[in-house]
Amino acid sequence: MEFKIGDKIATREGFGKTLVELGADHDFVVMDADLAEATKTCYFGKAYPNRFFDCGIAEGNMVGIAAGLAAAGKTVVASSFAMFAAGRAFEQIRNSVAYPHLNVKICATHAGITVGEDGATHQCLEDIALMRSIPGMTVINPSDAVEAAAALQYAIETDGPFYIRFGRYAVPVLHDQATYAFQPGKGETLQEGSDLTIVASGMMVKAAMDAAATLSAEKGISVRVINIHTVKPLDSEIIAEAAAETGAIVVAEEHNIIGGLGSAVAECVAETCPCPVIRVGVQDVFGRSGKVPPLLEAYGLTAEAIVEKAEAALRLKKA
Amino acid sequence: MDSAKLTQLKHEAAMIRLGILDGTHAAASGHPGGSLSIADIMSYLYFAEMKVDPANPKWEERDRFVLSKGHAAPALYATLARKGFFPFESLVTLRRVDSVLQGHPDMKYIPGVDMSTGSLGQGISAAVGMALAAKIDGKDYRTYTIVGDGETEEGQVWEALMFAARHDLDNLCVVIDYNGLQIDGPIAEIVNPAPYEGKLSSFGFHVITIDAHDLEEIEAAFNEAKTIKGKPTAIVAKSVKGKGVSFMENQVKWHGSAPNDAQYEQAVAEIRAQM
Question: Which of A36, A54, A300, B76 shows a CA-CA span of 20 to 30 A to B105?
Fold first, then answer.
């Protein structure tokens, strides 16, 4: 499917459409747990009904069946909301998929606060923390539909367990589909800079770009912006380099500040080239119901919040 | 069953029991009770029922076996060793830090283990996945799984059963090792998942109840399962926990404790006397 720069499209939509395209020449099975219309696996289900299985509202069993299919040689995409995939089925993912290192791709949609009106029970802000703590698990958080499509293809073509995080909310396409090449495990420098680095993931990449523009235009600050799609394994080289060369880092993500990309970057910086690291994310609280823009305001997931933290990081750097 | 076959299967079951004792005694830990309760079914599965090739453990056409009650690993390892997947002598390395014989089955490193299990309720889902894979690929291998009776307290077991029946997985055979005891006591006193027949039947399974230690009944059940089309089969196998060792039989404490030297000697002597 064609995605044009600037078009607003949810990464779950990119996931769903790409599943159908890949289905034509890749032999894999797709499973869902009664959320196919929402996760967008419904497109694949319609196109390839013989390779699509709805397990009903039983996510643990879905992951277990996916593991059995994979043990018998199939490549499996298993999808649900992040809360019920990474959350409810955590232990099945850990023991039945990751421990035997099986070829199951957990494709979780509706991650983060941008679930919106459904509220806290459905707003998973812990999935990256959970998934990156599992040995051998690759964790990818795409920033737009182009990256989502490419990450999905990479996962399907690569042996082993994957967790890929998709969002419900429409976000702008940032990458040129015609020239985009997914580099697994590599951070992407979207903009060079020398005073400070903003590291971002998922839907916060656009906010990071906007924050960098504001910092440059209004304060004359030279900001490096790095997009991390592969949260695990983390591109520690690009992070250490940013720490050494800019001396201050802000990390922005739609996740609890505990355990996600912010933690991963802080761990890396502490062990390679210590410098101030400030985390922009949900401040260890639950979400709530609401439209997405006011939710992002309320939880500090905006370009303005990043600007504020960037200035704080610069003050720490100088102190 | 002719007498030669019966003699052989009884012999293998006894050897499996000796292997269980060797492993748990050497490790000074492990689960002998629920391993001994499935020894006869394991003997029948691997020496009369399943197509497997010890020289080619990953043979694509092989029948699959998932030990959903993964803590009975000593029984699986002893069976695989008798079948020739690895030396019987290696059973004494059970649970040792330098051994592949993990406390619970590990498919990555142990030849012949089709699925890593141990967290209860999960293996049966994997078995359902394997049976589904056979249907998708048009292959005629069958999938067998043994679920503990205590394990049926896990809701995931019933999720898996529902899916298997919905997808008409007649290539799947679920055995429930109904020995009536779990770690904390008799299953009837914990949350009482039994009786099974009506539940399994209403979940869409063909249900057969047998004596888990009668090889002729075991044979009849597995043969009947193969004739059932359009639905999966569940075998409710009424067993004795610790079967074959007098002081372990029907004793909760032998769920998860190993025999000491004196107990091992006595247990081995009892099994040998039955051979």
Answer: A54
Farthest-apart Cα atoms in chain B, separation: 52
CATH number for the domain that contains residue A229 = 3.40.50.920
Between the CA of residue B41 and those of A225, A301, B196, B235, B236, what are the distances in Å?
62, 58, 19, 11, 12
Question: Where does residue B198 rank: exposed (0-12), middle (13-18), buried (19+ CB within 10 A)?
Answer: exposed
Model confidence over B61-118: pLDDT tens digits?
999 999 999 999 999 999 999 999 999 999 999 999 999 999 999 999 999 999 999 9
* C-alpha span between A211 and B83 (Å, rounded): 66
List residues in chain B touching A: CB distance below 8 A. Answer: 60, 64, 66, 106-108, 114-116, 118-119, 121-134, 136-137, 156, 159-160, 162-163, 167
Per residue of chain B (275 residues), what is the pLDDT tens digit? 999 999 999 999 999 999 999 999 999 999 999 999 999 999 999 999 999 999 999 999 999 999 999 999 999 999 999 999 999 999 999 999 999 999 999 999 999 999 999 999 999 999 999 999 999 999 999 999 999 999 999 999 999 999 999 999 999 999 999 999 999 999 999 999 999 999 999 999 999 999 999 999 999 999 999 999 999 999 999 999 999 999 999 999 999 999 999 999 999 999 999 99
What are the CA-CA distances from residue A68 to residues A80, A208, B101, B121, B143 (Å)?
A: 18, 41, 21, 13, 11
What are the chain B neighbours of A72 within 8 Å (beta carbons)? 64, 129-130, 133-134, 137
Domain extent, residue B37, equals 3-274
Q: Considering CB atoms only, which of B60, B119, B160 is closest to A61?
A: B160
- Report the alpha-carbon distance of residue B123 to residue A65 in Å, rounded: 9
> What is the rounded CA–CA span in Å between residue B108 and residue A239?
34
One domain, residues A98 and A147? yes
CATH number for the domain that contains residue B75: 3.40.50.970
Residue A157 sits in the same domain as residue A230: no
User: Which chain B residue is nearest to residue A67, measuring alpha carbons?
Assistant: B126
Contact B163 A58 (CB under 8 A): yes
> What is the C-alpha to C-alpha distance for residues A68 and B115, in angstroms, rounded to an integer?
8
Determine the structural domain holding residue A127 and report its residue range. 8-172
Q: Are residues A33 and A165 in the same domain?
A: yes
Q: pLDDT per residue over A1-34, tens digit each? A: 899 999 999 999 999 999 999 999 999 999 999 9
Residues from chain B contacting residue A160 (CB–CB below 8 Å): none
Compute the nearest-CA separation of A58 from chain B (Å): 6
The closest alpha carbon to A70, from A141, A132, A161, A145, belongs to A161
CATH code: domain of residue A95: 3.40.50.970
